[in-house]
Specification:
alpha/beta, Oxidized Rhodanese, domain 1, 4-stranded parallel beta sheet, 12 helices, 9 strands
């Protein structure tokens, strides 16, 4: 399971130049001016629904998504490796991993340690943008790795011990901190808060598998349960989706609309934890409410 979804820097280095390898750099365009040799550039924004207010929602036009991925040189038979700077994003590599799984690609890995580890080891890099030959990737949507707002509403209304909802945002956001641009603060009722940024070691590599499992078990979760992840716009939650997959959780679904969409629907229930908010911000409950 561990090797199924992660690739280390040494293994990637030994495979550079393979015709059937596609490396995707999901950092910002400015950062891409230095990149792993052969890596193409693509960000999650390119795959968002152009008609939606909720920024994290995927473009419903699967043919358009397919065409954009083909433009990266992705074939059905490609081995795809995604990387970023894990210390300087919101889980973008997890989002690309999740989206490719949703669209049915069968060989997607994340580079363990990403750009920080690659450069710390003084490995080669290029500066010129990569313009690949278009690939033949054909999407085959997997609805089992995504959940939409309506289905999540039903889960919240009729909760089950077999399903855990994970809020991947910060403790402050979960507790109910007011955020500009959002009509409501708080979290989805029954959700447990597992901040997305607690799974890495100092060298940007993912913590050992045993540690990941212990972290989830501490929240009363087990590998037999279904897990639904959300955050603000479906990025941090997609990273936790990836980590859960590493840890052996097979039944995981990401909610791409996340709080950006949920908070705008006043028929969608929301809760605050004012005591927790006071603990983490020092503001009195009267001020927070």
């Amino acid at each position: 399971m561990w090797s199924t979804y992660l690739i280390d820097t040494e293994t990637l280095s030994l495979n550079l130049g393979r015709d059937d390898l596609v490396i995707i750099d999901v950092r910002g365009e400015g950062a891409y001016t230095s990149h792993i040799p052969g890596a193409v550039h693509s960000s999650w924004h390119e795959y968002s629904d152009p008609q939606a207010t909720a920024k994290g929602l995927l473009d419903p036009d699967v043919a358009r998504l397919e065409k954009r991925l083909q433009a990266l040189g992705i074939n059905d038979s490609s081995d795809v490796v995604v990387y970023s700077n894990p210390f300087d994003n919101w889980g973008d590599e997890g989002r690309m991993f999740w989206m490719l799984q949703y669209l049915g690609h069968r060989s997607v890995k994340v580079l363990d340690g990403g750009w920080p580890k690659w450069t710390a080891e003084h490995r080669p890099y290029d500066h010129e943008p990569v313009r690949p030959k278009p690939g033949n990737f054909t999407a085959s949507v997997r609805p089992d790795v995504m959940i939409d707002k309506q289905e999540l509403k039903k889960l919240v209304k009729s909760p089950s011990r077999d399903t855990v909802i994970v809020d991947a945002r910060s403790v402050e956001e979960y507790a109910g901190k007011e955020i500009d641009g959002l009509p409501r603060p708080g979290h989805i009722p029954s959700a447990v808060n597992i901040p997305w940024n607690g799974f890495l070691r100092q060298d940007a590599t993912v913590k050992p598998l045993s540690a990941l499992r212990e972290m989830f078990h501490a929240f009363g979760m087990n590998e037999r349960q279904e897990v639904v992840t959300y955050c603000l716009g479906g990025l941090r939650s997609a990273w936790i989706y990836f980590v859960l997959k590493l840890a052996g959780y097979e039944r995981v679904r990401n909610y791409p609309g996340s709080w950006w969409e949920w908070s705008r629907d006043f028929a969608a229930p929301a809760e605050k934890d004012l005591k927790l908010l006071y603990q983490v911000t020092g503001k009195a409950e009267e001020e927070a409410s």
